[in-house]
Specification:
Diaminopimelate decarboxylase; amino-acid biosynthesis; alpha/beta; lyase; 2 domains; 383 residues; TIM Barrel; 8-stranded parallel beta barrel; Lyase, Ornithine Decarboxylase, Chain A, domain 1; 9-stranded mixed sheet; 18 strands
Length: 383
């Protein structure tokens, strides 16, 4: 606590001990079934966090050209880098070809044709997975649902036969596998069960069309506990992988891949912020803190809830709206939050901020971002 007071707020605090425990738990369960896990870079690209993920032996799932470059520069094996995204630019594609990444997850027929043209210029063969929209409900927030017919991602399962035939004439494309992703922050195993059943059906259809996918990539989406992060510091990787293994009907020579992000890094990060003012209103009380939606966008964007703890006070609790300094009414971290009686200068920790926190931070209102701090072997450091 005393060490945290020495740092300018707001800042991200990453518990690398907790991160490594989460990475180990995931890898242990995935290895039971021979599964391959790629880390979803969009969740967090902090250098120290990436260093630990590389050391743990994961691949990388990227959704932009700069993420591909960052993954390569951070030490991920290029052949374990997968490049997804519905709108890859020509430059992003050519940069990825130069790096020699393992796979492109392709999301439209026209993208296949463009990728073939660009690969021809490099005399390269681009290995691809076709992203299929399985039309499976994910039981999560509408803004992070990605696998329904009305979503912009992937191609229809009804178009697979046409795509197989098309790739026969694309000399610089190697058709590899199938890719699926139905959403994010999914906590109901029913969604993954339904995905497996749909993947089984599509996989069999491909075989009937004369093509056997070498990879079945089921994406990610496994959620974490935002309400009780102290009680559940890790996602339930055992239940997740056992659910998949119990229902997915893959041949022995078909590799099973995943793209996990939030479940690996979400719980290891806290946003540390300072109380600027306690504002007593007519019908409610506010804590105005120095962090805002510029540091943590999720509550404003998804109405997400994060557990908040006052690190400085043990007084009796009362309810506060915890709000930031940004000139937007949506700049609110939580309403009617039960917190100890708080005062100016108290430090608050906003938990479960390791995913889609720092990676979505922005400079709106010309906000500056302070350096992150880390917990390593139980000690707080700021390199």
């Amino acid at each position: 606590m005393d060490k945290l007071k020495a740092y300018d707020t707001p800042f991200y605090l990453y518990d690398l001990d907790l991160l490594n425990a989460s990475l180990s738990a995931c890898k242990t369960q995935a290895d039971r079934f021979g599964y391959h896990v790629h880390y979803a870079m969009k969740a967090n690209t902090n250098d120290m966090v990436l260093r630990e993920i590389v050391k743990a032996g994961f691949g990388a799932d990227c959704v932009s050209g700069n993420e591909v470059k960052k993954a390569f520069q951070s030490g991920f094996d290029p052949k374990a880098i997968v490049f997804a995204g519905v709108g890859k630019s020509d430059k992003e594609i050519t940069d990825a070809l130069e790096i020699g990444i393992g796979r492109f997850n392709v999301e439209s027929v026209q993208e296949l044709e463009v990728l073939n043209e660009l690969a021809a210029k490099y005399n390269a063969i681009a290995e691809v997975n076709i992203r299929i929209n399985p039309n499976v409900k994910s039981y999560t927030h509408a803004n992070i649902t990605t696998g329904l017919n009305e979503n912009k991602f992937g191609v229809s399962a009804e178009d697979i036969q046409e795509i197989i035939q098309l790739t026969e004439n694309l000399k610089h494309i190697k058709l590899g596998g199938l890719h699926f992703h139905i959403g994010s922050q999914i906590t109901r195993m029913e969604a993954f069960k339904n995905l497996c059943l749909r993947v089984n059906e599509i996989n069999e259809n491909c075989k009937q069309y004369g093509w056997k996918p070498d990879v079945l990539n089921l994406g990610g989406g496994l959620g974490i506990d935002y309400v009780n992060p102290k009680d559940n510091p890790h996602a339930d990787f055992q239940l997740y992988f056992e659910t998949i293994n119990g229902l997915l009907e893959a041949d022995q020579d078909q590799e099973i891949h995943f793209e996990l992000g939030r479940s690996l890094v979400g719980q290891c990060g806290q946003l540390i912020t300072k109380v600027l003012y306690e504002k007593l209103g007519k019908t409610k009380d506010f804590l105005i803190v120095d962090a805002g939606m510029t540091e943590l966008m999720r509550p404003a964007l998804y109405q997400a809830q994060h557990f908040i703890e006052n690190l400085s006070s043990e007084a009796a609790e009362q309810n506060y709206d915890v709000v930031g300094p940004i000139c937007e009414s949506t700049d609110c971290f939580g309403k009617e939050m039960p917190l100890p009686k708080s005062k100016r200068g108290d430090l608050l920790a906003i938990y479960s901020a390791g995913a889609y926190g720092e990676s979505m931070a922005n400079a709106y209102n010309l906000r500056a971002q302070n350096p992150s701090a880390y917990i390593i072997n139980g000690k707080v450091v700021r390199p």
